[in-house]
Amino acid sequence: MPKAAESTDALEPIAECGCGAHDGEGRKALGVDPEAKMRNLHRLRRIEGQVRGLQKMIEEDRYCIDVLTQLRAVRAALSRVETEMLKAHLGHCIEAAIVGGDQAEQRQKASELIELLDRAAR
What fold characterizes domain 33-121? Predict the structure, then answer.
């Protein structure tokens, strides 16, 4: 169970980092917004259906442009999930590290984000 940390202003208390740095059992998301989680799961299920549809299109020798159009749709949908996850990480995990003042944790979060963006740029 995540511990609540008081914020420095009059806002509600914030939970510790949601990426699992404090759970003692490895890296597990702790402070996940249930609504965001459901939105992402819904998107991923829809993407799963789109991928199955793509498999069927290829099995049926569908026109290349139709398959490519669906591939682009899947890629765009995955990008939306990625964007949502990145926003959540920035708005919760990284913000908690900044507000918490722990410089080692701040460096770790910044390093993780830079490494992620570097891998995406390749």
Answer: Methane Monooxygenase Hydroxylase; Chain G, domain 1 (1.20.58)
